[in-house]
């Protein structure tokens, strides 16, 4: 009797373990799929910068984990009262860049608070796979405040042989903006408010002295 009860308990335990294993199978499959999928990014690097007035910062616009890339377009906007672009270094076709030579650059222009770049590889260049820089930009920091580095981008693939008509399609990707926070030097933060208080005190004291002097003249 005891043997039968023990056998039934063992069978029940095996059934529970089997059921639990079945429940875990979808979860394991889902985890494998999530880690296997990689997303393409076009991003500002570094994404956030804290800097003082009078200093210079350098940022990169880069692509992360792209496949079959043959052309790209980027537009970057910033607050021109805070930042002044002083250097543009296009990295297309370079060892740390994206795209393969020969490369045709359709646009590479800078306006006040705006930069635009549009380029594509040309035959016989192969398509690009991986990560790299599109352009590096240096800014002078001219005023305190904050500025978003607002990025817009388009990526285009190399048409496979069976595509008709043989035109490039957009490559899906995510875009990551940047942010610059410009602060005053520590001494300036302390000194400027103190200077303002002293200036007000000096003006009030000067008026009181003048008022006393005027009264003395009236008495005389």
Can you describe this structure?
The protein is built from two helices and ten strands, in the order αββββββββββα. It is an alpha+beta fold and about 220 residues long. The protein has three domains: about 35 residues; about 140 residues, Immunoglobulin-like; about 35 residues. The longest helix has about 35 residues.
Provide a concise account of the structure shown:
With 220 residues, the protein is of the alpha+beta class.
| CATH fold label of the largest domain | Immunoglobulin-like
* C-alpha Rg (nearest Å): 32 Å
Number of extended strands: 10
The helix-and-strand class reads alpha+beta
Q: How many separate domains make up the residues? A: 3
What overall form do the CA principal axes indicate?
elongated
| Largest pleated sheet | 10 strands, mixed
Query: What is the second-level CATH architecture of the largest domain?
Result: Sandwich
Counted by DSSP, the helix tally is 2
Which spans have pLDDT < 50 for at least 5 consecutive residues?
5-37
Q: Which band does the percent of strand residues land in?
A: 35-45%
Please estimate the helix content.
25-40%
Distance between the termini: 129 Å
Mean pLDDT: 81
Give the helices and strands as they follow along the chain. HEEEEEEEEEEH
CATH class of the largest domain: Mainly Beta
List the helices and strands and how they pair.
Elements: H1 2-36, E1 41-45, E2 48-52, E3 56-77, E4 83-90, E5 103-111, E6 114-121, E7 128-141, E8 145-157, E9 174-176, E10 178-183, H2 186-219
Parallel strand pairs: 1-9, 2-10
Antiparallel strand pairs: 1-3, 3-6, 3-7, 3-8, 4-7, 5-6, 8-10
